[in-house]
Amino acid sequence: MDYSRYTGLQVVKHDKGIAEVIMGRDGKLPAADHAGHGELADIWRDIDRDPDISVAIVRGQAKGFSAGGTLELVADMVDSFEHRARVWKEAREIVYNMINCSKIIVSAINGPAVGGGLAVALLADISIAAKNARLIDGHTRLGVAAGDHAAIIWPLLCGMARAKLHLLLSDEVSGEEAERIGLVSMAVEADALMDSAFDIAAKLAAGPQSALRWTKHSLNNWLRQAGPLFDNSVALEMLGFTGPEVREGLAAVRERRTPAFPPGAPF
To answer: Tell me, what is one Gene Ontology molecular-function annotation carried by this entry (predicted)?
Structure first.
């Protein structure tokens, strides 16, 4: 399998069927630009087809797991129907391609994990967070509905009450707290993160692959049943990119200030 076409992702193969999917480049916090957002969707099809891979560990860089989408990507979605339509399709494919990938996916979450990167982190079959990691679904802070992955997975992982608390307020959740409320599989000290990810990946890679993959497929039927909920959330997120709130949210991010959203809503 040739992964050379990817510009925002690297695939590093290790022994015994383990591979790393590495987001971003050394020294930078990974952020998805126009090309990178699509790559986050495509990579899971390639991993699924790669006979050399049994388990994939997805991680970011030393500075963190993910910064979400670039400001250029967000601005272009605000201004362009074509960009919104493409990102809508890719956002759906990130989720569904991870759910349908037959290979086991392990996420190793360090530093900030935001936006589409957070979707990848939490949709992994086993999510391991550094205790000091910072998980942030910042959609409502930006001025759009919590789409991406939130509606399909957060209530199942941590319950509706917690999901609403964190998604409506765009609250930051530490890796330690994420483990406590069931948002991630486990939390470890930061210096043990990658060792823990590789230890679990090695156990999975040495296991009965058909049994493991069919177990994943069966469990993920819970997520497939929630597909209409997810599709609705992503559609409403994209609708939000046409309104005034996201323009103010984007301006506030650029100007490093608290947003002053317009009062009221037509809905």
So the answer is: catalytic activity
**Cα(174)–Cα(159) distance, rounded to whole angstroms?**
17
| SS3 assignment, position 224 | helix
Task: Please state at what angle helix 81-100 crosses helix 115-123, rounded to 10 degrees.
Answer: 20
- Residues 175-203 have a mean pLDDT of 98
The residue segments making up the domain with residue 61 are 9-209
Mind listing the pLDDT tens digit for each residue in 147-163?
999 999 999 999 999 99
The answer to the question of residue 258 being in a domain is no
Of 141, 140, 142, 143, the residue nearest 151 (C-alpha): 140
Q: Where are the beta strands (DSSP E) in 175-250?
A: 186-188
pLDDT of residue 1 exceeding 90, the answer is no
List, in sequence order, every residue forming a beta bridge with 10; answer none if it has no partner.
22
User: CA nearest 77: which of 256, 259, 249, 263?
Assistant: 249
Q: Please report, for residues 43, 100, 257, the alpha-carbon distance to residue 224 in angstroms, rounded to integers and kept in the order given.
A: 20, 9, 39
How far apart are the C-alpha atoms of 44 and 216, rounded to whole Å? 15
Q: Within a domain: residue 253? A: no
Q: What is the pTM of this model?
A: 0.95
Q: How confident is the model at residue 199 (pLDDT cuts 50, 70, 90)?
A: very high
pLDDT at 267: 79
Q: How many domains does the chain have?
A: 1
Of 127, 134, 167, 123, give the one whose Cα is nearest residue 64: 134
What angle do the packed helices 227-240 and 81-100 form, to 10 degrees? Answer: 160
Report yes or no: 184 and 178 within 8 Å, Cβ to Cβ.
yes
Q: Are 142 and 253 in contact (CB under 8 A)?
A: yes
